[in-house]
Design a protein that fits this description.
This protein is an alpha+beta fold. The protein has one domain (4-135): endopeptidase domain like (from Nostoc punctiforme) (endopeptidase fold (from Nostoc punctiforme), Alpha-Beta Complex), CATH 3.90.1720. The protein is built from 4 helices and 6 strands, in the order ααααββββββ. It has helices at residues 4-8, 23-33, 47-56, 58-72, and strands spanning 74-76, 86-90, 97-103, 106-111, 115-120, 125-131. Helix 3 (47-56) packs across helix 4 (58-72). The longest helix has 15 residues, at 58-72. The radius of gyration is 14 Å and the shape is globular. 27% of the residues are buried.
């Protein structure tokens, strides 16, 4: 199995760009690096049309994002999250976003202000957790 560092190499430090380097596309790139087969189209959306949907209806875009994670990944309980898991995080009233658990209380996320970077997980609520089937303890 590849290390988390090798799976996320080349992602950190990118400038935020909706549709290419945002929270959803970060997760898609990471999952592809993990060997997950990502459909080119899901629920009638490509990555490009997903960005358009996010601009016009962010709540619906988040629903599509969560549905794809539910289809591709294995759900885990928030208290069982570990490095390599995909997390849906929330902070106060802000819309939830996806991030990669990178261990040691940190996540890799894409933010408009900082681009793709490490953030402390402590200030966020973990809403959902998904695990790649390849790293699942269930197999």
């Amino acid at each position: 199995m590849k290390s988390l560092v090798s799976l996320t190499r080349g992602l950190v430090g990118k400038q935020y760009s909706l549709g290419t380097d945002d929270c959803f596309s970060l997760i898609i790139k990471y999952l592809r690096n993990c060997g997950i087969d990502i459909p080119g189209e899901y629920m009638g959306l490509t990555m490009e049309t997903y960005a358009d949907l996010f601009r016009t209806d962010p709540a619906r875009a988040k629903e599509v994002m969560v549905a794809l994670m539910d289809e591709l990944m294995i759900a885990a309980r928030p208290e069982e999250a570990f490095a390599g898991d995909i997390l849906l995080l929330a902070l106060n009233e802000a819309p939830p976003f996806l991030a990669i658990h990178s261990g040691n209380g940190r996540v890799l996320a894409a933010t408009e202000g900082r681009g793709v970077c490490q953030l402390s997980i402590n200030r966020y609520e973990i809403v959902r957790v998904w695990r790649c089937r390849q790293q699942s303890r269930l197999q």
